[in-house]
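Changelog-linked ticket: adenosine-5'-triphosphate example.
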Amino acid sequence: MKSPLLTVSGLQMRFGGLLAVDGIEFQVNPGEIFAIIGPNGAGKTTVFNCVSGFYRPTAGEIRLDARAITGQPGHRIARAGIVRTFQNIRLFRTMTAVENLLVAQHAQLDTNWFSGLFMLPRFRRAERDALERAAYWLEKVGLREYANREAGNLAYGQQRRLEIARCMITQPRLLLLDEPAAGLNPQETHELDLLIRELRDQHDVAVLLIEHDMSLVMEISDRILVMEYGRPIGIGTPAEVRSNPRVIKAYLGEE
Ligand SMILES: Nc1ncnc2c1ncn2[C@@H]1O[C@H](COP(=O)(O)OP(=O)(O)OP(=O)(O)O)[C@@H](O)[C@H]1O
């Protein structure tokens, strides 16, 4: 059995008097697709914000492999291999699709200002590699012919796929998807389903997702954590979660 990629233990996040998240425990294994579900306001996004370094949790621990990353700033967590998309898409809207993918690689390019200034071979090679990777990911998410279109002028579903490409181009180990199917039509949701599986199978990435589309969640998740009022009420495979009385009660209400 492989050791977990992400380990979240005793996670708590308090905003003044509001305990938004409390007692959250879960692990994401390498290559796993793990979903967090729950009613609006259950605390799902807050968990994401803690894992990705947007919030510093008020208690608990987050580990990537064996290394504690709790409370580290977002850019360090991203460099360690955890990247995310957002509920409200965040692309550089006036940059083209390909430019968005080049900018995403900037922090990783193995060059410095000196080699850039003098256009040394090493700089040119790094640039060429970055462009090749951008072309690869544009193709992968079906945006090859839109490479030079401004991101803000792409259709909504295309913007969502570009956001995923922007994450993947940094070769993350864990991809956090915040409601990736929101606003997509059934055909686009089906394509998203295939894309997420492909990322996992071909690019060695584990996926942690928040999603309200239950058919997508049940279809692609290996395991699911269910939250209500900031607390865990069930964890397990889709079949286990579906037959959990507490989960049924939370979703369907009392008789
Ligand atoms: N920065 C913040 N300051 C104060 N309260 C917050 C903050 N962020 C979230 N909350 C509160 O924490 C609780 C959990 O919110 P969160 O957004 O994590 O829920 P969610 O499960 O992601 O909901 P949704 O499905 O609607 O996105 C809510 O009561 C919310 O108002």
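Closing comment: Example verified and attached. The first strand starts at residue 6 and ends at 15. Residues 82-171 form a domain with the Rossmann fold fold (CATH 3.40.50.300).
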